[in-house]
Design goal:
Blueprint: H1 30-34, E1 39-42, E2 48-53, H2 59-68, H3 71-78, H4 87-93, E3 101-109, E4 115-124, E5 133-140, H5 149-163, E6 168-174, H6 178-186, E7 190-193, E8 197-203
Parallel strand pairs: 5-6
Antiparallel strand pairs: 1-2, 2-3, 3-4, 4-5, 6-8, 7-8
Helix pairs in contact: 2-4
Length: about 200
């Protein structure tokens, strides 16, 4: 998915925003509603990952994550040839901005016992969209794809966006990215596009 951009001066940096009033049946734990969200998710192959908000200290993890993606996965995420993230881009993608940029990461235990970032997802306000819409983006490490991780991330972002007044999440998918198109269909998204790109809209 295309990386959403941050716009507007004087934005307030926040921790993971409140989720008061969200139906717990939506898939997010009560801890998210009360403040600092942490959730352990079991995947289809029996492995588990920890979901939590992105933090500015994750900038280096994000750089390693994108550098280790296959060229095809980077192409599908950014819709162009990208070898990795600059320091500035990593800081942007790891910073939460109130009502404008919300980012979630998935972490697994690496072979050395240190946390390893295996997926990231986010939504952000885009000036080209209506006021009740946000742009989403998501990337999953190659070895963690097709395990339900993308679904887990997007459903939680959708719950969060709805609680913060958004009615739709939009994202662009390159034609041929069948797993992503199938995920959007499973989430009830409306798909429109052409031979090169499909625009998906998830109603909230």
């Amino acid at each position: 998915m295309k990386a959403p951009t941050l716009r507007g001066p004087g934005q307030r940096v926040i921790s993971w925003p409140p989720m008061a009033g969200v139906d717990r049946s939506g898939g997010c734990s009560g801890a998210w509603q009360r403040g600092r969200y942490r959730e352990r998710v079991l995947l289809r192959d029996g492995r588990s990952v920890l979901l939590r908000p992105a933090h500015h200290r994750d900038a280096a993890l994000l750089q390693s994550f994108f550098a280790e993606l296959s060229p095809r996965s980077r192409l599908l995420r950014f819709h162009g040839a990208v070898n990795g993230l600059s320091d500035a881009a990593a800081r942007t993608l790891s910073t939460q901005v109130a009502s404008r940029h919300v980012a979630l990461v998935a972490l697994a235990d690496g072979p050395d016992g240190l946390p390893e970032l295996c997926a990231e997802a986010r939504y952000a306000v885009d000036e080209d969209l209506d006021g009740d819409e946000a742009e989403f983006g998501i990337a999953v490490a190659d070895e963690w794809q097709q395990l339900g991780l993308g679904h887990a991330l997007l459903t939680r972002l959708a719950i969060h966006a709805r609680a913060n007044g958004f009615s739709r999440l939009r994202g662009s998918v390159m034609a041929g990215n069948e797993p992503m198109l199938a995920l959007l269909q499973a989430l009830g998204a409306e798909l429109r596009g052409n031979a090169a790109e499909v625009r998906g809209t998830i109603p909230l």
